Amino acid sequence: MAIELGHFALILAFAIAAISAVGGFALRPGGERLALVLSQAAVLQFVLVAVAFAVLIQAFVSSDFSLALAVNNSHSLKPLLFKISGVWGNHEGSMVLWILILVLFGALVAAFGRGLPPDLLSLVLATQSLLAAAFAGFTLFTSNPFARMVPAPLQGKDLNPVLQDIGLAIHPPLLYAGYVGFSICFSFAVAALISGRIDQAWARWVRPWTMLSWTFLTLGIAMGSYWAYYELGWGGWWFWDPVENASFMPWLAGTALLHSALVMEKRNALKIWTIFLSIITFSLSLLGTFLVRSGILTSVHTFAADPTRGLVILTLLAVVIGGAFTLFALRASTLRQGGLFAPVSREGALILNNLFLATAVGAILVGTLYPLVLDALGGTTISVGAPFFNLTFGALMSPLLLILPFGPLLAWKRADIVNAAQRLLGAGALAIFVTILVASLSGRSISLAPLGLLLGFWVAFGAVAELIDRGRIGRIPLRESVRRLVGLPRSAWSTAIAHFGVGVTVLGIVATSAWQSELVTTLNPGETAELSGYKVGFDEFAETPGPNYVAEQGHFTITAPSGDTRPLVAERRIYSASGMTTTEAAIGTYGFSQLYLQLGEPLDDTHVVRIWHKPYITLIWLGALLMAGAGLLSLSDRRQRIGAPRRAAKAVPEPAE
Amino acid sequence: MSWVRTLLLLCGLLLSLPAMAVGPDEILPDPALESRARDISAGLRCLVCQNQSIDDSDAELARDLRLLVRERLVAGDSDDAVRQFVVDRYGEYVLLAPRFGAHTLLLWAAGPLLLMIGLLGVWLAARAHRAAPQTAELTDEEAAALDQLRRPKVDQ
Question: Measured between CB atoms, does B133 come within 8 Å of chain A?
Answer without folding.
Answer: no
